Amino acid sequence: MHGQPGVIAFPRGAGLAYDGFVQATGVDCVGLDSTVPLEWAAQKVQGELGRCVQGNLDPQLLVAGGPALEAETHRILHTLGSGPFVFNLGHGIVKTTPPEHVAALAQQVRSWAAPLAYQE
Question: In this structure, are residues 30 and 54 in contact, taking their beta carbons and an 8 Å threshold?
Fold first, then answer.
């Protein structure tokens, strides 16, 4: 995206066809739903295709909160955070999500320091 507006697409439920979607459409960033394997997205979409990924926290973990939310957030940040990446949910927020869970998630993401490997 290199300083210019980019296009983020969200082909929900595309499975492992995300790479074909990215190649066919030329989008700058692809939103991943929570079913996409992180390691695959890091290798294929970020690495081989050089594209940004967005996602992919399961919204139900945000509802639940606690250690499971913290652990999955950590895993997402460490798996995708060394490439072009936007932290987000794998789909929309659930109405029953406690606001304090959102605050805890935001704090965890804000306090995370990305590896120096990716710099635009």
Answer: yes
